[in-house]
Amino acid sequence: MEYTKDLSIIIPLLNEEESIGELLAWIRSVVDRAGYNYEVIFVDDGSTDGSWAKIKEMAEGDDRVKGISFRRNYGKSAALYHGFSKARGRVVVTMDADLQDSPEEIPDLYKMIVEDGYDIVSGWKQRRKDNRITKNLPSKLYNATARMITGIRLHDMNCGLKAYRNEVVKNIEVYGEMHRYIPYLAKNAGFDKITEKPVHHQKRKFGKRKFGMERFVNGFLDLLSLWFLSVFGKKPMHFFGFTGLLMFLTGFVMTVWIIVAKLSHQAHGTYYRAVTDQPLFYLALLAVMLGVVLFLAGFICEMISRNSQERNHYNVKDTLD
User: Fold this and answer.
1) Are residues 212 and 189 in the same domain?
2) Are residues 92 and 157 both part of a single domain?
3) Angle of CA points 39, 80, 116, to nearest 5°
4) What pTM was computed for the model?
5) pLDDT higher than threshold 80 for residue 234
6) CA-to-CA distance for 286 and 284, rounded, in angstroms?
7) Within 13 Å and on the Cβ side, how many CA atoms surround 263?
8) Which among 21, 11, 5 has a CA at the least distance from the CA of 68?
9) What pLDDT digit, counting tens, does each position of 236-291 carry?
């Protein structure tokens, strides 16, 4: 694939009018000094301040500065998705617009992709400047859980400062709130050369942070969804069918046990409660019903999967072109 730029820098933003001018000047000083042929793509995610007007002003007379504006707020994943689709650089770098990510890291990130051969280099904010228990402790727990489920040894998967080989961003789909798990999306697409680099973190200079504590709950639920889709997305019957069969057999064995126990007590002339008077009977009935429902759910999911347009979509490398 031919690239028209060495570097594409994608900056999603929401109400960052005060910071983006200073950020662009900082980026220019670093990247111009490094001598890259580059582009900076600002993606305005429905800002209600003067961010879009500022972007248009910065882009006047400079074809290296691009702007995309959403008519309303769609979220960071949507902003990155559109930025990725427009990126023409051999290396794609993403960073936040709040001046907490340092452009000084860009040359090293670029070299790790081009010279060291990594697919993704993720920033790691070892020494955070927002040292709050309400932010750092949940973040550590969240990242530990993400490492355990994804198998990717990153300390800060949610860091906005990352570098990608262009092929990576062109072969993944970022949607919902999946921007937190781009390394996992890339791994599932076959790009497994993933590493991290300690980066400098700065205090927010303007405005206020856009995410609250709910992001950790939503992030965990999104992670479970991604894990399930990556493992069972093309074979849902393996999950629902197996679970349903296990539930059905459990209920069946419990039912047989109740019947055999009753017959045994009758044969020996001892007292035994009626089957319908036993809680175990209703648990067995519930297990059988759940087993049937889960099996049917797996069957329906399997039919949907087989009729999906993505059923034979695979990322490949070849020498045919």
Assistant:
1) yes
2) yes
3) 65
4) 0.73
5) no
6) 5
7) 6
8) 11
9) 888 888 888 999 999 999 988 888 888 888 888 887 777 778 888 889 999 999 99
Q: Do residues 159 and 247 both lie within one domain?
A: no
d(CA 210, CA 29): 28
Alpha-carbon distance of 210 to 126, in angstroms, equals 21
Structure tokens at 93: 């770098």
The gap between the terminal CA atoms of the chain, to the nearest Å, is: 10
Q: Which amino acid is at 178?
A: M
Q: Give the separation between CA 52 and CA 69, rounded to whole angstroms.
A: 7
- What is the total count of domains within the chain? 2
Q: For residue 64, what are its two tokens?
A: 């290296």
Residue 316: CB atoms within 10 A of its CB come to: 6
C-alpha Rg value of the chain to the nearest Å: 27
Alpha carbons 32 and 51: distance in angstroms, whole number: 24
Question: Do 96 and 70 meet the contact criterion of CB atoms below 8 Å apart?
Answer: no
Query: For residue 262, what are the domain limits?
Result: 236-306
Report the alpha-carbon distance of residue 133 to residue 115 in Å, rounded: 38
**38 and 64 Cβ atoms separated by less than 8 Å:** yes
